[in-house]
């Protein structure tokens, strides 16, 4: 038989163990609650930052803000934060032979139904650049109803389907008598050619069109990127989307 003293000792140890477990679990629970409250605070701060940025955007009244306002409403990242084109290519292509013949034409990027579009990649791109081009015309304020329409012709030799560091992004863009033609080894070159084609569109003497020219280009580096330090500097989601759109405008 255990003595009363031994029983009291055992009971004390059991109570101490339960107390230690209780306080340990309580500490963990408090830490979880504190972390949850911090996350909620950060979320609310981000929401407030977004609203403040939108308010500043709406107050500014610039053309950039107008397009950005449209982005925020439609949640469509296909519309870039640009309102006009000057015919300048950025960055400068490796080869460009530009004539003095200006063609007052309107471009149609949409390809025929039987076009081999590399698993939908080229079709998605032509739809996107058609919207960008239409936005450019709308912002110019020029009536395009009576303009001659030219179909953008695309020739792609093979489909790589997945991007990689070894993908071929070279393309040749020619405009002869106002007829644009993009020739590329893969769909990635087609994307770069479409971006360049949109950039060479411009307004001259209140007319929309493009100059006859020949362009050959490809990115200088297979890997390109931009670092955004969002951990130390708050950046609204709308701004990040605009930055991504701007990155797509740089074909090098």
CATH topology of the largest domain: Chitobiase, domain 2
Structural class: alpha/beta
Shape: elongated
Helix content: 40-55%
Q: What is the CA-based Rg, rounded?
A: 30 Å
Give the terminus-to-terminus CA distance: 88 Å
* Percentage of β-strand residues: 15-25%
CATH class of the largest domain: Alpha Beta
Record field, number of beta strands: 8
Describe it:
Helix content is 46%, strand content 19%. It is built from 5 helices and 8 strands, in the order H-H-E-E-H-E-E-E-E-H-E-E-H. Residues 61-81 have low confidence and may be disordered. The protein folds into 2 domains: 1-44; 95-249, 2-Layer Sandwich (Chitobiase, domain 2). Strand 5 (171-176) and strand 6 form a beta hairpin. The longest helix has 57 residues, at 4-60. Helix 1 packs across helix 2 and helix 3 (121-140) runs parallel beside helix 4. The strands form 2 sheets. Strands 1, 4, 5, 6, 7 and 8 form a 6-stranded mixed beta sheet that branches. The chain has helices at residues 4-60, 63-74, 121-140, 187-200, 237-249, and strands at residues 95-103, 105-108, 148-151, 153-156, 171-176, 179-184, 202-204, 207-217. The protein is of the alpha/beta class.
